[in-house]
Automatic annotation (TrEMBL):
Belongs to the FKBP-type PPIase family. It holds the Pfam family FKBP26_IF. SUPFAM superfamilies: FKBP-like. Residues 70-115 form the FKBP26 IF domain. This is peptidylprolyl isomerase. GO terms for molecular function: peptidyl-prolyl cis-trans isomerase activity.
Length: 191
């Protein structure tokens, strides 16, 4: 792992500019731990702080495939107590699909990924390099558990770290996530 970054990102469809995902504010993450796509992390290894980078992802969800569009009798939905309607997302045998059309007792379900056949753009703005342990801890908790930075309290004294969230104690699963991503924490006791 080369470094920790504070960054903002937007993921959108190249042709339509439809935003798929974005950071509401900034996030703090380590580069080299596969939090972002490997291809993007590799390109960020030598990136410059203060710059904005656009990474084009060529059909990351593959091509749209006709064989992923199925016709299902409407009575299969009725048996399960489902009222099919266009736009409804269903789960059939572990596969997610979207109902496209209903016609003559037949339901057309598209099991292609919604982004199949589309090129995406991942725009990343590098705000600053992060070196402080407290910022790294807050960054990981914020990224994985969506807890705002101002609701996370970190106190570091010698080799002891006390972390509280919204005036409560840190759940054990958070501690495990922290030690998986922040190598320095192996030298500390987390309370």
């Amino acid at each position: 792992m080369r470094w920790w970054l504070k960054l903002r990102y937007v993921l959108y469809v190249k042709d339509t500019k439809e935003v798929i995902d974005s950071s509401d504010d900034y996030i703090i993450i380590p580069i080299g731990k596969d939090i972002l796509l490997k291809e993007i992390e590799k390109n960020l290894e030598n990136a410059e702080i203060g710059k904005v980078y656009d990474f084009i992802l060529k059909k990351p969800y593959g091509d749209r495939r006709e064989e992923n569009i199925k016709i299902i009798p409407i009575n299969e939905f009725n048996k399960r107590g489902i009222t099919p309607k266009p736009g409804l997302i269903i789960d059939a045998d572990g596969m997610k699909g979207i109902i496209r059309n209903i016609n003559s007792g037949r339901v057309i379900v598209d099991f292609n990924h919604p982004l199949a056949g589309k090129d995406l753009v991942y725009r990343v703005e590098l705000v600053e390099e992060v070196k402080g342990l407290e910022d790294k801890i807050k960054g990981i908790i914020n990224f994985f558990y969506r807890i705002p930075f101002d609701k996370i309290n970190v106190t570091i004294e010698d080799k002891n770290i006390k972390i509280s969230i919204k005036e409560g104690n840190l759940p054990d699963k958070y501690k495990e996530t922290l030690t998986n991503y922040i190598e320095e924490l192996k030298n500390y006791k987390i309370e």
